[in-house]
Amino acid sequence: MSTTKWVIDPTHSEIGFKVRHMMFTNVSGKFSKFDATIEAEDSNLENSKIEFTGAIDSITTGNADRDTHLLSADFFDAAQFPEIKFSATSFSKIDEGEYVLVGDLSLHGVTKSVKLIADYGGLMKDPWGNTKMALALEGKINRKDWGLNWNSALETGGVLVSEEVRLNIELQFLQQ
Fold first, then answer.
1. pTM, two decimal places
2. CA torsion angle 65 67 69 75 (round to 10)
3. Which residues contact 79 (CB under 8 A, 6 or more apart)?
4. CATH number given to 4-175
5. What is the pLDDT of residue 97?
6. Is 38 helix (H, G, I), strand (E, B) or coil?
7. Any residues with CB less than 8 A from the CB of 38 and at least 6 apart, and which?
8. What is the residue-wise DSSP string for 72-141?
9. Model pLDDT for residues 61-104, shown as the tens digit of each residue
């Protein structure tokens, strides 16, 4: 059976995350430089090789001071750990269009397994005859599992930054 390769369409994709700030609001961020590929034997993606890399220094939250703090040794330490990587270990069908994507997430010098829920949007031809595929991924990780431990206590109780990070990823791929 032949393998089909898919490459990311970065203009129609977004790698986003949300973290609770001061225990009651969310701060959103995203990576502006990233790459992802899929090598699949068929269109249902089971047994696919799925890989992602993102440039840590491309994190943006809409606030320059916060972004600078995130890139510092307090958080991502972008100088020492310039990249985030994900490599799938399994992609299993749960229901029609719904999958579980499990893989190794390498971040801040630590690699751990993560599980994401994947909504497979299927295949579609764009107006120029290119075959496209869409995946929407959601999941949660604990940033402390990757050594991202910085925080500050609030005088009212609680902490400034939540340990839980919610991932919200929209991907569009182009068949090669």
1. 0.86
2. 170
3. 73
4. 2.40.128.110
5. 81
6. strand
7. 5, 6, 45, 48, 49, 50, 51, 133, 173
8. STTTT-TTT--EEEEEEEEEEEEETTEEEEEEEEEETTEEEEEEEEEEEEEEEE-TTS-EEEEEEEEEEE
9. 998 988 998 898 888 899 999 999 999 999 998 988 899 999 99
Tokens 């840590």: give the residue: 56
- The CA distance from 135 to 147, in Å, is 29
**Residue found by looking up tokens 């393998």 in the block:** 3
CA neighbours closer than 13 Å in the CB half-sphere of residue 8: 20
Alpha-carbon distance 138 to 71, whole Å?
A: 24
Residue carrying structure tokens 């992802």: 36
